[in-house]
Amino acid sequence: MKKGFHYLFIGFLFILFDFRFFIDVLPDTLGYFFISKGITEIAQSHKHYGKLYLATCFLIIIAIPFDLNVRITSAFSDYLVFTWRVIWVVYLYYLLSILYSHLVSENYLCLAKSLKSLSNKVPAILLISLFISTFLMNIPHDWAESLSILIVIVEAAVSLWMIVVFNKLSKMKENKQATSE
Amino acid sequence: MDVWRENVKRIVFYSALTVIIASFFLNNCYANNKKIGMPIVIPSYISTLADDSVQFALYYVTDHDDKRTVQRITFGDTDIWVEGETSDFFEEGSSELHTIDTFKYQTLNRASFDISAEEVADIYKKGILAEDIQVVLSDDKKIPANFQHFEILKTKKKDKEKLSFISSGGSSEGTGHTKFKVKQNVKLTQMDIPEELKSYYEVQVVKSYQKVDLPFKLSKEETLSINTKVIRNIPFSCDTTIPLISNEDVIGFISLQNNPTISEKDIENLVKEYGR
Asked: Hey, how many other C-beta atoms are within 10 angstroms of the C-beta on A15?
């Protein structure tokens, strides 16, 4: 279990930090690979594990062009970026929900407690920022600039929070506890 | 209980996602509806003398994501290419023109042209009409240059002798003056200011330090000063030579020059008039 969270910690570190020197030196593809290893370690027995694993494999492939710095200059780039953000929010929602419900069902209540806040709040925060960002194209330039900065800061803080929590979970003792009911 | 809570959470999540997707498409539709498609050149008033060179700038509006630029202006078969770089023109706070750059959907660009006296004479001979002048974009598409007034005035040397040019000048606040010395007795009857410009300029004629109204007589050795002042924002570029007329004869010229000061409202009006 600890190993699984350690993989998730490394995976999210690769995905959420970009150090680009011609190509991404912390490639997202490798990040999704570590996440796939992490969920295999943690939630292999969960009923939705197969779907989550497949989704992660799909993201490994999708991330390749981003890592290779392929620039999208199509007229549909706005639509592609938006679709990508929706996929990312849905993926995080399922990943965190499945991890949380699996920890609860396996009676790792202490670990589940640490993940609960993340599982509830991260998708909500990302949905709000996604909703606000849909209006950026139609509001005055100055406001749009300020809101964009705010969204970037909020999303960076959320990313950092996830990394910190996964790091904390990878170091926690994984004692099973009896459920109260 | 947990299953029920999970279901509610999932319903709320997907409902929110549906609202977000709908909001994205509606916002996109609205933004696309605001696009002008083809660039629009802001109208301009140009007039010059047939034996003079002329420098002028055309201002044009493009959609934010439209990377096309104006490459040249074409007067029949005479093509004049854009002079210099224009990309660094709109620096923050550098000009009132910058106001348009904060507009949500379009960007204002500038293309400067320098037409030599020979080229002016050549265009004059062809008798090109303002509505026939076009600009060519970087993708070789032609769009109207939207000259509302383009005129090349013939210079009459003998008439020019009646007024001797002393000096001229202007300020960034929109004031300008041209000073003459009268060489022979003459009657100034008219200043040929285009009707479209009259409401934007206040023109004062000062004879021997006294404001006078047209028509009036000028005596030899008197000084004549014509002061101009921009009295409201001019939403088009203007570089116009105004003839001073005595009865039927042109006895001198003054020039009116200014850059456009364009607001978002002006752009909306332009799009209504010329766009889509």
From this structure: 25
Q: Is the ipTM reported for this complex over the cut 0.90?
A: no
Q: Are strands B237-246 and B44-49 parallel, antiparallel or unpaired?
A: parallel
CB proximity B11 to A under 8 Å = no
In this complex, do B17 and A137 lie within 8 Å of one another by their Cβ atoms? no
The model's pTM: 0.69
Q: pLDDT 10s per residue in chain A (181 long)?
A: 778 889 999 998 888 877 767 667 778 899 999 999 999 988 888 888 889 999 999 999 988 887 777 776 666 788 888 999 999 999 999 999 999 888 888 888 877 888 888 888 999 999 999 999 999 988 877 788 899 999 999 999 998 999 998 888 888 776 665 544 4
CB contact under 8 A, A134 and B27: yes
Q: Using DSSP bridges, classify how beta strands B216-218 and B223-230 pair: parallel, antiparallel or unpaired.
A: unpaired
The Cα A87–Cα A59 span in angstroms is 9
- Mention the CATH class of domain B157-258: mainly beta
